[in-house]
């Protein structure tokens, strides 16, 4: 047993285990994260002993980039290290101080940018955003628990809207009042009051139907009552 341990130790410290190739793959096309950035964050270099750094050290280093959601690492005795990255995707933006904060569907803050993204804007956020800077990518920051609970409902709104092919017309969602989520359909000149979003699929079906029936007319769609006892209706704007 001791001889086996000594033999393994000798192999590990020998040049046999030096890194000859680093393979990096990212799970989406046109990723925000650059391969050379991942390699730099990993701290791995060609010629270095592949066991010099633990997998945990490498993963922790790579996750300093907030766009990195998950990292898987495999090492082969032929000197190849493979790093597989799951990248977070921008799902929503928050307007803040004449800039835009990008967040993913789990409420992680990814970036502060001067450029908007073609995704819905979230209104009514209570998280303190005063410490968000252009260096945010070096930290892991998330919305507070109150906002995360509401964001879960926002995700459900978008999922149901996508199922019914109307997600593309949703431009803003106000989650300030969890008893009445407000959805803005700017291209349709309509505002939707969804209530507390119980029986959400039925509410979205009503919205889809009214949007079609009232195409070209500015107004408000009310589906925020008890669907068993309240009317669903459209109120034309002035």
Distance between the amino and carboxyl termini? 86 Å
Taking all Cα atoms into account, the compactness measure Rg is: 24 Å
User: What share of residues is helical?
Assistant: 25-40%
Q: Specify the biggest β-sheet.
A: 6 strands, mixed
Description:
Helix content is 26%, strand content 26%. With 238 residues, the protein is α+β, with helices and mostly antiparallel strands. Helix 2 crosses helix 3. The longest helix has 19 residues, at 145-163. It is elongated, with a radius of gyration of 24 Å. The mean pLDDT is 90.
Short description:
This protein has 238 residues and is α+β, with helices and mostly antiparallel strands.
Secondary-structure topology with pairs:
Blueprint: H1 2-13, E1 21-26, H2 35-42, H3 55-62, E2 68-75, E3 80-87, E4 92-96, E5 99-103, E6 108-113, E7 121-123, E8 141-142, H4 145-163, E9 172-174, E10 182-185, E11 190-193, H5 200-213, E12 219-222, E13 233-236
Parallel strand pairs: 1-3, 7-9, 11-12
Antiparallel strand pairs: 2-3, 4-5, 5-6, 6-8, 9-10, 10-11, 12-13
What keywords describe this structure?
four-stranded antiparallel sheet, 238 residues, 5 helices, alpha+beta
